[in-house]
């Protein structure tokens, strides 16, 4: 088929037309032609992430209209002419950490901050990937998983075992990768060290089990929700602190005398300041949760210097997802990684807005949109 062919496949998708706003269930046309480095994927499941929610609420910049969703599991339907390591029928998971393999960041092993990662999701092609009523529709992070079919750059997907159910495989590419990777790849927590985690949603729960896998001796979970704290114990927390009932900094200090690592998975100035206050001298607080636009971080300058404390951002678990996602899948199949309890609700595409409402109310670890028989 030539690049100029107008052939397209009509599918259902959830489109964000305005922000703040709710998603609109509609039909879009997916281009049947593929660029050499693209793959077409039939989506089986797509997790709902707080990053998506921030976009719906107008807290993250996004070009509209667009299809959100980046935690994707699906089946390969077609591959471009340059794709020789994926085949039709392969089960894949997607990750927004696309990489070119050639820039300075990629050549020095930091593919998760590839200098061209945003461009790869907007590949120069003769016609848009998605169209509605003749007008282009974007894909958040170049993925757009809240669609029955999506077209992706080859360097955004990796093959995963079919033994991992689709609704759990979808979460590997963001919530699990970010949480576990932040501990193992980013902070490099060592056996015997102590950890506190602020925020026990989908990513925070995976930070907890990353600390457990790394061999941390004390893992303190901090959250406002008693239900999430109870779930946190299943993911590896040795202690829990209900910050709606007590001062979290005082509680963590009394439990541990100060911890070696604090992971803030909320992304607000107050939680980051609390994270620094929970540390032992000479240790680092890790910013995992993404602050909304305009959020400014206020830190205690004197104690930062006199106690030699640090704050560092961690993006997407400092991952190399072609290696990390299959490893995480194997850990799940060995019963060493908890994914089953991570999926709190499954909803069809028609109920995607209700899924985001559950997140707003703090009633879900991870909501997953499932398609068809997945």
Report on the structure:
With 374 residues, the chain is α/β, with parallel strands linked by helices. It folds into two domains: 8-164 and 339-370, Medium-chain alcohol dehydrogenases, catalytic domain (Quinone Oxidoreductase, Chain A, domain 1); 179-314, Rossmann fold (3-Layer(aba) Sandwich), CATH 3.40.50.720. It is 27% helix and 27% strand. Strands 3, 5, 6, 9, 10, 17 and 18 form a seven-stranded mixed sheet that branches. Helix 5 (175-187) packs across helix 6 (202-214) and helix 8 runs parallel beside helix 9. The protein is globular.
Shape: globular
The tally of structural domains comes to 2
| Computed Rg | 21 Å
Number of H- or I-type helical stretches: 12
* Count of strand segments: 18
Question: Quick one: CATH class of the largest domain?
Answer: Alpha Beta
- Quaternary: single chain
**Helix content range of the residues, please?**
25-40%
Q: By helix and strand content, what is the structural category?
A: alpha/beta
Q: What separation lies between the terminal Cα atoms?
A: 30 Å
Q: What is the CATH third-level topology name of the largest domain? A: Quinone Oxidoreductase, Chain A, domain 1
**CATH architectural designation of the largest domain:** Alpha-Beta Complex
- What value does the average pLDDT take? 94
The CATH superfamily of the largest domain is known as Medium-chain alcohol dehydrogenases, catalytic domain
Largest sheet: 7 strands, mixed
Strand-residue fraction? Answer: 25-35%
């Amino acid at each position: 088929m030539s690049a100029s062919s107008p052939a397209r496949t009509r599918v259902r998708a959830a489109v964000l037309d305005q922000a703040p706003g709710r998603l609109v269930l509609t039909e879009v046309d997916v281009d049947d032609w593929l660029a050499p480095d693209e793959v077409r994927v039939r989506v089986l499941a797509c997790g709902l992430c707080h990053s998506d929610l921030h976009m719906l609420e107008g807290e993250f910049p996004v070009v509209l209209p667009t299809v959100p969703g980046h935690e994707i599991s699906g089946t390969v339907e077609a591959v471009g002419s340059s794709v020789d390591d994926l085949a039709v029928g392969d089960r894949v998971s997607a990750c927004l950490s696309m990489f070119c393999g050639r820039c300075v960041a990629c050549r020095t092993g930091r593919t998760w901050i590839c200098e061209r990662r945003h461009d790869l999701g907007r590949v120069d092609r003769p016609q848009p990937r998605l169209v509605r009523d003749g007008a282009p529709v974007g894909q958040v992070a170049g993925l757009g998983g809240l669609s029955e079919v999506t077209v992706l750059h080859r360097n955004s997907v990796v093959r995963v075992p079919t033994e991992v159910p689709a609704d759990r495989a979808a979460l590997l590419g963001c919530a699990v990768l970010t949480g576990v990777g932040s501990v193992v790849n980013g902070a490099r927590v060592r056996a015997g060290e102590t950890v506190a985690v602020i925020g026990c949603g989908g990513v925070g729960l995976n930070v907890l089990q990353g600390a457990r896998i790394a061999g941390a001796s004390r893992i303190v979970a901090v959250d406002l929700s008693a239900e999430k704290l109870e779930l946190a114990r299943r993911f590896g927390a040795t202690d829990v602190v209900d910050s709606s009932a007590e001062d979290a900094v005082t509680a963590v200090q009394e439990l541990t005398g100060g911890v070696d690592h604090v992971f803030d998975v909320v992304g607000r100035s107050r939680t980051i300041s609390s994270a620094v206050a929970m540390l032992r001298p000479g240790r680092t607080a890790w910013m995992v949760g993404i602050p909304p636009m305009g959020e400014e971080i206020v830190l205690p300058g004197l104690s930062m210097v006199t106690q030699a404390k640090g704050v560092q951002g961690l993006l997407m678990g400092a991952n190399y997802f072609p290696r990390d996602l299959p490893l995480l899948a194997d850990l799940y199949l060995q019963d060493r990684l908890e994914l089953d309890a991570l999926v709190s609700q499954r909803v069809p595409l028609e109920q995607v807005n209700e899924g985001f409402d559950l997140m707003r109310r703090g009633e879900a670890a991870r909501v997953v949109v499932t398609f068809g028989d997945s």
